[in-house]
Every structure is written in C-alpha cells, then in structure tokens.
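User: I'm putting together notes for a lab meeting next week and I want to include a structural view of one of the chains we've been expressing. I don't have a solved structure, so I'd like a prediction I can at least talk through. The sequence is below, exactly as it appears in our construct file.
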Amino acid sequence: MEMRRLGKSDLQISPIVMGTWQAGKRRWVGISDEETTKAIKAAFDAGVTTIDTAEVYGEGHSERIVARALSDVRDKAVYATKVFANHLKFDQVIEACDRSLGNLQTDYIDLYQIHWPSGNFDSEIVPIAETMSALVKLQEQGKIRAIGVSNFSRPQLEEAAQYGRIDSIQPPYSLFWRQVEKETVPYCIENEISILAYSSLAQGLLTGKFAADHKFEAEDNRAKNKLFQGENYQRAQAALTALRPISERHQTTLANLALAWLIAQPQTNAIVGARNTQQAVANAQALDVVLSKAELQEIDAISRTVTDYLDDNPVMWNFAA
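Assistant: Thanks for the context. Below is the predicted structure for the 321-residue chain, given as structure tokens.
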C-alpha cells in the first residue's frame, strides 16, 4: 500500500485508516472483543498500518483492544488517538495522554488529537492556547509525534494553528456528508494539513446494506444519525441505486467505490471501521479502485442529490433528540 505523508510531519500513514470507535462498544451493539481484535490485525496485515482510536471510546477500552491487536508490531504501526473535550486544561491533557499511553502499551503516540473543541458536550471552555501548550510540551518530550484536531471549524483550526503545528484534521466526510469542503478543505490544501475523514461510509449507509425501511436499535448511535432519518434516508437510497452501475463497472462494492472517491479528494484519507476480518480486508481493497476524472465527476453529481438538501450543521447526529 502506498503511504502518504501526514501534514508536514515525518509520519507516513496509509490512505485507508482503521477506525476503532466500535471497538469501545459504547453506543454500538453486537460488538465482540475477539472479532475486533482479529479485524485490526487483519487490517494491518492488508496494509492498513494507521489505526485511529480515542480515550472516550469505551473509556479506554478501544485503546486497549488496539494494544492487544498490534503490540507485537508497534514499531510498524501508526497510532492515532484523541483527548476528549472534558480534558483540555493543561494538566488534564498531560494526564489523559499518560492514560492513553498506558492503554496503548506504548511510550509514544504518533498522532494525538483534540477530539472536540472545548465547550462541546457541556464541557468547560478552555482557551485553545492552554490546550495547545500542553500538546506542544508532550511533543517536545517525545510522548507524541504530531498534533491533530477533530471536529474543528476552519476558524477554530486557524486559531489552534497560531500556537503550534497542526498536521491533521478529522472531520465527518463522505459522499453523503461534505460540509468540510466549503471552508476547511481549501485551508488544508494551502497549509499542507492532512484530512482524516471519519464516517467515510456514512456509518455503513454507503455500503448499500440497509433496506429502505431499516430501523436501528435505540442504543445504536446510528438511530440518531441525520442521514438515516426521513427524506435524507430516502434520497440516499436513490443515490445508491444510481451509484451501483459504476461499482459494477469496476467489479467492486458500493463501499469501496465510495472510499475510492474519498481518497481521490485533495489531502484526504479515509477512516473506516470494521467489525470482523472480512470487512477489514475488504476495506483495504478500495485502493485497487482507480476512478477516471469523468467517473469522479459522475459520482460527485450523484452525491449532491443527497448533500444539497442537508443543512450546514457539521454534526451528523441529533444526540439531543
């Protein structure tokens, strides 16, 4: 698998990144530690050397599963984890990083990211200068190699960049969710900031596996996802029908067509989760799908039959609903 440089850092990441929110189990159903451990191993063996996790995914459980899966190949893997919005004071960032180092059974984190800007989820407002000063100190100590942010707007990203080098941003980004393109992508191109797109398959919607009348269990986070609700969901189903002939032409899946389109976008890499080894290996095969300029434009037009009807709120979930 051809590697890509993360921002201006010396890190080389895989264009497909293994996402491990589901490994934490919280807000997911039907997740097995044994299966997710095998899936992470399978992804790595298939060339997906970059793994994304967070302290908040099951209160460290996801990080511990990553360690279980990859400790024997730690020097060949790239670990990306995140500090949550309620731990952004200077001392809290240092403590959170140490906890993550312990969970991951490592003495350095390759990419350490601010998961959400302070103030989200009723967290205390902390000046970004304070949070960044802690991250810069961790970088100077060698505990982290690069700094990233997640769920930041362009103005928030610009402010953070005043206090230290930001090498990546992690936004929700997929064929069906493209708000990041309006302001943030141009800034990332100009400043050589890598985009690590999460929910790159729109939480499974872009696989085409959900029927028009599908209902999620109440505890499943996708029950709150705007794309799975009302007219948004029906438009998405129609778009998937339009995308199928293109995927068939390439003898690939809808999922890999969507991933191939995404990693063809400027600066963009795709985080994608997997519940089992079969899914993990299949995700890696998206790199084999090469789309022509005309096909990229055709897919873009189909995508906009969904995204043109969404509002500008970048958060995918109605968690308060």
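A couple of points you could mention at the meeting. The two ends are 41 Å apart (CA to CA). The CA atoms of residues 140 and 154 lie 26 Å apart.

User: Perfect, that's what I needed.
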